[in-house]
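Need residues for this backbone.
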């Protein structure tokens, strides 16, 4: 990898992390009643996302949607980015129940991502319309049905966010 590619990769990863951190800061500020500070964090997060996306596009690794679906399916199948299985075992060995819960729920949700991609790949030409519901606690994604209770973490229906478009 040449120096520019390396720098772009670093920029992409750094900006993506910063954007997420700032969004969590914004949630915290909101919870503490600092509306303007929350807005500032959200604005800077949005700006960092622009930098990150620009670096990612400059890496010229973004393909068409059919290939992007296939690549996303493959990476979910291998859970390439985060090795939750190992993290669960490590947290169990350490006796850290909170970490076990977090890692195991995340792992269980990751497994369902692959299924969602596979499903989407089979009908991407006709773009079947559906509403997705995402659990705000563990990230579980339900296709078309708002569950009474999250099957992964047990959160109630009101903890789900719907994505209609
Ligand atoms: Fe995933
Ligand atoms: Fe959940």
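Answer:
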């Amino acid at each position: 990898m040449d120096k520019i590619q390396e720098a772009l990769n670093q920029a992409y990863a750094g900006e993506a992390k910063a954007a997420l951190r700032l969004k969590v800061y914004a949630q915290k500020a909101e919870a503490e009643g600092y509306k303007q500070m929350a807005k500032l964090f959200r604005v800077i997060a949005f700006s960092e996302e622009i930098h990150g996306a620009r670096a990612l596009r400059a890496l010229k690794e973004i393909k068409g949607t059919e290939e992007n679906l296939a690549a996303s399916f493959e990476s979910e199948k291998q859970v390439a980015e985060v090795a939750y299985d190992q993290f669960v075992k490590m947290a169990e060995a350490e006796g850290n129940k909170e970490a076990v819960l977090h890692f195991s729920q995340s792992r269980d949700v990751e497994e369902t991502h692959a299924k969602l991609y596979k499903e989407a790949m089979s009908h991407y030409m006709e773009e079947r319309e559906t509403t997705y519901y995402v659990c705000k606690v563990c990230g579980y994604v339900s296709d078309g049905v708002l569950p009474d209770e999250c099957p992964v973490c047990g959160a109630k229906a009101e903890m789900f966010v719907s994505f209609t478009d």
